[in-house]
TrEMBL record:
This enzyme's EC code(s): 2.7.11.1
Domain Protein kinase: 1-146
Any GO MF annotation of the entry: protein serine/threonine kinase activity
Protein name (database record): non-specific serine/threonine protein kinase
Keyword check for Transferase: yes
Catalytic reaction(s) noted: L-seryl-[protein] + ATP = O-phospho-L-seryl-[protein] + ADP + H(+); L-threonyl-[protein] + ATP = O-phospho-L-threonyl-[protein] + ADP + H(+)
Keywords, in A-Z order: ATP-binding, Kinase, Nucleotide-binding, Serine/threonine-protein kinase, Transferase
Organism (species): Erythroxylum novogranatense
Pfam families (alphabetical): PK_Tyr_Ser-Thr
């Protein structure tokens, strides 16, 4: 297990288990990220450490792919359109199908990760918030930290 990335709220490690696809384990610096735990494949809490386990996104961020001549050529238009559709579907799901709705607040090419087949997945929920909804269905102006 070795560190492959670090953000403000977590470190990410690559896990290789024989006979299993590579995984990413996110070691949270703060253990109150319940929404992220819901989106993870699995999570484990060992003492004061909380780990979220995800499918490893081998290709990294959309930003890094597009900034490389080789990567940009490999990400042909059909794959780009599929990525846009996946991102739109993920954001639509978070807003329309989750209760309370989740507002990402930081979607960019850096927060879209690609797996080996160049399929897009939304990530980086560090600034995301729950949208507060009144029983009448009206939206409150404030957002709740997830």
């Amino acid at each position: 297990m070795h560190c492959i990335g670090e953000g403000t709220s977590a470190k990410v490690y690559k896990i290789e288990v024989p006979g299993v696809q590579p995984l990413a384990a996110k070691k949270l610096k703060f253990s109150d990220r319940e929404s992220e735990m819901d989106m993870a494949k699995s999570f484990s809490q060992e003492g004061s450490h909380t780990f979220l386990v995800y499918e490893l996104m081998e290709r990294g961020s959309l930003s890094s792919i597009l900034s490389s001549d080789t990567g940009a050529k490999e990400l042909q238009w059909e794959k780009r359109i599929n990525a846009i559709q996946s991102i739109a579907n993920a954001l639509s799901y978070m807003y329309h199908d989750c209760f309370p709705p989740i507002i990402h607040r930081d979607i960019s090419s850096k927060s879209v990760l690609l797996n080996f087949e160049l399929e897009a997945h939304v990530s980086d929920f560090g600034t995301s918030r729950f949208l507060n909804i009144l029983p009448t269905g009206q939206q409150l102006q404030e957002l709740t930290v997830i």
